[in-house]
Design goal:
The chain is of the alpha/beta class and 322 residues long. Helices cover 41% and strands 18% of the residues. The protein is built from 9 helices and 11 strands. The strands form 2 sheets. Strands 1, 2, 3, 4, 7, 8, 9, 10 and 11 form a 9-stranded mixed sheet that branches. β5 and β6 form a beta hairpin.
């Protein structure tokens, strides 16, 4: 009888140890994807600060932003995609720089397939003055998207389990007509890279109102990206359809579009700006104080599992709709 009790206690101990290991693993996995609200706020504050003077392409302010992004890449262990992080281009008399990094894939069979995560980090410089302030800081447009990409890159680098290679690109020249993304798309096409999908972040600084999804995706019906992304995210409805996005032709108005044109692959923009939830588009009051860093951190966390799955499925499950 005593032997049976010892056996039962030992079995119970093993079960408890097993459950503890599972709990620890799950907690570790969750924590690895935990996005710091404080980090989001810090980066947002700097990138939309008066010091950067509206981040106009070719300006001293955007040069400071580019260096800040490069430092983030270095700290995260993200390699330059080219010889340096800079991908330079010319727009009339101005020189612009895309900042481009690489997380090389870990799988010999899949690492030559690429996913591109992007956002534009430029803005318009000055705007119509309000109470003596003429700096268009561009917090939501698009310091927010830039911060989102930096956080995604950091957490993907920490995980270091992407079988496909991931290009991280922050574009300049968007406000001048998608010039930076056009340049990079053409350059990558000339190199002959095998682009699987492109995901762009634009204006994610405030939550949507009265929606049953976290963010919308432009060109919703052009691919199955939203459907698969929600599936990859464990059934949560992360991405949805916004009718105004089609009415305003947003699919062709952001940095996803040049990659769609060059590669004819799923290339779409994720946003939470729904034309009713933020009044400061291209306005000098587009400042960090009016954005919601906690919402941004939550959304970025929700995006991580979907992107990880896209980077790791054996087959290319994201497809254009015919």
């Amino acid at each position: 009888m005593r032997k049976n009790k010892i056996t039962l206690r030992f079995s119970a101990l093993l079960i408890m140890l097993f459950l503890f290991q599972i709990s620890t693993a799950q907690s570790s996995k969750t924590n690895s994807n935990k996005v710091s609200v404080e980090e989001v706020q810090k980066d947002l504050n700097y990138l939309s600060s008066d010091e950067l003077a509206g981040r106009e392409t070719g300006s001293e302010g955007i040069e400071k932003a580019a260096k800040y992004i490069e430092e983030h890449f270095k700290e995260a262990g993200i390699s330059p995609y080219f010889d340096t992080y800079r991908d330079d281009f010319q727009v009339n008399d101005r020189k612009g720089y895309n900042v481009v990094g690489l997380l090389e894939g870990t799988d010999e069979n899949l690492k030559d397939e690429y996913i591109l995560l992007g956002a534009h980090y430029d803005h318009i410089g000055n705007g119509k003055a309000v109470d003596g302030d003429n700096i268009a800081n561009g917090a939501n447009d698009n310091a927010a998207g830039t911060v989102g990409v930096l956080q995604l890159a950091k957490h993907l680098a920490i995980s270091n389990d992407n079988k496909r290679s991931i290009i991280i690109a922050l574009f300049s020249g968007e406000e001048m007509g998608l010039k930076g993304s056009e340049h990079l798309a053409e350059r990558l096409k000339e190199e002959g890279i095998d682009l699987y999908a492109m995901i762009n972040l634009e204006m994610i600084g405030v939550p949507m109102k009265a929606k049953d999804y976290k963010a919308y995706i432009t060109g919703f019906d052009r691919s199955n990206l939203a459907e698969k992304f929600n599936e990859y995210s464990g059934g949560d409805k992360v991405l949805g359809f916004l009718p105004q996005a089609g009415q305003m032709n947003l699919f062709k108005r952001s940095d996803n579009y040049p990659f769609y044109k060059e590669f004819n692959v799923p290339a779409q923009t994720i946003s939470t700006f729904d034309f009713s939830n933020y009044p400061y588009y291209h306005h000098v009051d587009d400042e960090a104080e009016f954005l919601d860093a906690e919402h941004m951190a939550d959304l970025i966390e929700d995006l991580i599992p979907g992107i990880q799955k896209i980077a790791n499925t054996a087959d290319r499950e994201i497809k254009m709709n015919l």
